[in-house]
């Protein structure tokens, strides 16, 4: 038996529902979150719980699985690859050992528990960060400290001045409504609105004063003037990229200029990985030797994946070994691999050269000659080796400071970096724009209700016929059983 209803009949005819059914419906609809303050307290609680879980997980894994709990912030400074390739290996290793011992002395007395790194965060000095990460990191952290101070001042003013003023109105619900705490709660003719205007104006000079204080603390090191005299040239044919050809080209193309130094870049991505592994092994060996010196006991270890966490590895044929002997053998093996890879990398230039001239004017002249014109081409001076070096294809720019260059990344194609940057920024935009707003997150969770079968059926029918909920309920209750 079929029933047909027109939309007008369903819309106009009143729906008679008993009081018991309404009470039953209300009892079976239980929301997970309340609507007080638009779900912001619940959102803050969820963020705090998530932060606590990740902090505990990090502390446990760091203590159990990390390389003897060394603190990354006070590890040695990364090796300058110019020294690694243009100096001797003994100089590199010698400098590494001196810095590693300093790092070890700092890490031994700091890292003794699961959460000891929390205190180290507040005790670490800018000198340690400068040694590890350079002056740019110190300036960035100083900038963040000034921003924190600025936001702290704004928060105090908002809680002690703005919030009580907003509570004086009565246009947006009661005290448990989020709108009651906002500017829209005040009457448009209220004199309290001038407080908002005044504070908004005062925040601007306050920010300028704080940022001015930050800017005067920035120190520019102008002792090394060779950076401004050094050009970075890319797109040189790899097979003809050597110092002799470049010296000959600039001597013939610019006879009035003197080239002070020419350095080539090589593919050191593999060397970088091996050298970092060697340094980790050396740090671990120093820790074990210091432990024996302080306690008189030698450490044992399981050199397997998750061997420090799993305590039943002996049953599966994974016994412990002496830690000092293992790390000594690993250090020797990795050092040999670093030497072999370095020798191999020196035979494969990337087509990138760093040219240092005797004056800034000479560097600027070469830069201008190789700058593309409005026709997207240039006509630099030629030489007898121009047919091999192809200077018209060069991309010339002033070289950054060597300490600001990730030498192992020079072998990565620029197209790859652009694609990676686009994908990463798109992902961050989607995450930060759609998922970090409390109203979006809480409203989504608020729709997760505990419903009975009647509500589920009503929702499905309502979605299909695009009618109001009461019309859909009437259609369902009067239909055939």
TrEMBL record:
UniProt domain 4Fe-4S ferredoxin-type: residue ranges: 297-329
Coiled coil stretches, renumbered: none
Swiss-Prot/TrEMBL keywords: Membrane, Transmembrane, Transmembrane helix
InterPro entries: 4Fe4S_Fe-S-bd, Csc1-like, CSC1/OSCA1-like_cyt, CSC1/OSCA1-like_N
Highest taxon, organism lineage: Eukaryota
Keyword Transmembrane helix (UniProt): yes
PANTHER family given in the database record: PROBABLE MEMBRANE PROTEIN DUF221-RELATED (PTHR13018), RE44586P (PTHR13018:SF5)
The protein's name in its UniProt record: 4Fe-4S ferredoxin-type domain-containing protein
Source organism: Cryptotermes secundus
Lineage of the organism: Eukaryota, Metazoa, Ecdysozoa, Arthropoda, Hexapoda
